[in-house]
Each structure stands twice: as structure tokens, then as C-alpha cells.
Amino acid sequence: MEYINQIVSSALILALAVTLSVLISTVVTLCYISAMQKKHHLEVGKLQRRFKMLNAGAIGMGEKILRLEARARSLHKAQEEMRTNDLDFSYAQAQKLIERGIDSDQVAVNSGLSSSEIQLMQLLHQQDTPVKQARPKKVAVSA
Fold first, then answer.
1. Domain locations along the chain
2. Residue 128: is its pLDDT beyond 80?
3. Reported pTM
4. DSSP the chain
């Protein structure tokens, strides 16, 4: 009987040891899992902050791009107006030179217009000039 008691006692001790090891192993595993969850939670928080920062930067960059596009459109419009004004000035300058009787090549050099444009303007000026000369001058009549 004593032998059976020893076997039961040994089996009981062995069962307690196995149970205790399983319990300790479970506690250690739970602590490890908890630590990993905290670590992942902190990492997710860092990533969320970085994402918010990048998102805010992207929004700011988008707004800046929109402002730059508006500025580019404004500058393009101003440049077109300047071209139109320059062209108007060139035509006006060429007209004055043609009226003075300057050679078409010289007018082209001074106005920046092509010689074809100058020749066309000269033709128009020649057609317009006889009409002006043919009109009688108004004479003031004294009563």
C-alpha cells in the first residue's frame, strides 16, 4: 500500500508540476502578447500621426499648386496683353514711319513687323492718301 501511495503521490506531484508549468507558460505567453499589443498600439499611433502630418502636407501642397496655377494663368494673360499691346504699338509705329515716307525695309527693322506686313500697310496707306487729298478742304466763310 505504501508503494501505491508513493505512486499516487508521485503522480499527483507530477500532475501539479505539469499544471504549474502550463500555468506559468500561459502567464508568460499572455504577458508577451500584452507587451506586443502595446508595442503595436504605439506603432499604430506613430503611423497615424505621420499619416496625418503627410496628409496635411499634401493638402497644403495642393493648395499651393492651385495658387501657382492661378498665378501662372494671370501671368499668361498679362503676357498676352503685353504681346497685343506691343503689336498695337508696332503697327502704330510702322504707320507713322510709312506716313513719313520711310523705306519698307527700314520700317520693318524699326517696328519689328515683317516686310510683307509693311508692304500691305503701305498699299493701304497709298489707297487712303488719294482719298484724303481728293476731298475739298473746308474753307471758313466770313460773313
1. 13-125
2. no
3. 0.42
4. -HHHHHHHHHHHHHHHHHHHHHHHHHHHHHHHHHHHHHHHHHHHHHHHHHHHHHHHHHHHHHHHHHHHHHHHHHHHHHHHHHHHHHHHHHHHHHHHHHHTT--HHHHHHHH---HHHHHHHHHHHHHHHHHHHHSPPP-PPP-
